[in-house]
Amino acid sequence: MSSQNPFGIALVGCGTVGSATALLLTRDAEHLTQRTGISFDLRYIVDREFTRAKALGLDENLFETRLEKVLADPSVHVVIELIGGTTVARDIIEKALRAGKHVVTANKALLAHHGADLMAIAQANNVAISFEASCAGGIPVIRALYDGLIANRIDALYGIVNGTCNYILTQMIQKGESYEQALRAAQSAGLAEADPHLDVSGIDSAHKLAILAALAFDQRIDFEKIPVTGIDTLELIDVTFGNELGYVVKLLAIAKRTEKGLSLRVRPAFITREHPLAWVSGPFNAVSIYGHAVGHTMYYGRGAGGSPTASAIVADIVSLALGTAQSSFQNLRVWPDRTIEALHLPIDQIESRYYVRVMVEDVPGVFASLATILANHSISISSVLQKEPEDDGPQGVPVVITTHRAREGNMLGALREIDALDVVRRESVCIGIIDEHEETVEGVNA
Ligand code: HSE
Question: Which protein residues touch ligand 1 with a CB less than 6 Å away?
Answer without folding.
Answer: 162-164, 199, 204, 303-304
